[in-house]
Amino acid sequence: MARCRCDMRGLLSFQILWLLSKKSMHGEEIAREIAKRRGGKPKAGTLYPALKELRTNGLIRGDKVGKTRVYSITADGRAAAREAVVYFCRSFGDIFADSNRTMHRVARPTL
């Protein structure tokens, strides 16, 4: 996958909440899931501060299971994720709605 030149790092907390709304995961598992979507794994110095902030804000919890911390979304986190999806769709929905036409025009060679 080609590296995106547009800075998408601001979406990390949103992506973590979305992933944890699907299932509980440990940090490395979250990093792998993000890597599947972004094409690159977030560094520990980026991921764990985001997880800490989400925990501090009560949106996720981190329970120790042996030596591993498993993160789960809280009820407040689910509400925040729903609000974030609404905001994201309102802010970017028209981009996705138009993307098929735009990408078709961009990909089509001009004669």
**Distance from first to last alpha carbon:** 28 Å
What's the helix count?
A: 4
Structural class: alpha+beta
Please state how the strands of the largest beta sheet are arranged side by side: 1-3-2
Determine the CATH topology: Arc Repressor Mutant, subunit A
Query: How many individual domains?
Result: 1
What's the architecture in CATH terms? Orthogonal Bundle
Q: Identify low-pLDDT runs.
A: none
What is the CATH homologous superfamily assignment?
Winged helix-like DNA-binding domain superfamily/Winged helix DNA-binding domain
Helix content: 55-70%
Biggest sheet record: 3 strands, antiparallel
Oligomer: single chain
Mean pLDDT: 85
Estimate what percentage of residues fall within beta strands.
5-15%
Order of helices and strands: HEHHEEH
Specify the overall morphology: globular
Give the class-level CATH name: Mainly Alpha
Describe this structure in words.
The chain has 111 residues and is an alpha+beta fold. The chain has one domain (11-107): Orthogonal Bundle (Arc Repressor Mutant, subunit A), CATH 1.10.10.10. Helices cover 62% and strands 13% of the residues. The protein has 4 helices and 3 strands; from the N terminus they run αβααββα. It has helices at residues 12-22, 27-38, 44-56, 75-107; strands spanning 25-26, 60-65, 68-73. The protein has a 3-stranded antiparallel β-sheet with strand order 1-3-2. A hairpin with a 2-residue loop joins β2 (60-65) and β3. The two termini are 28 Å apart.
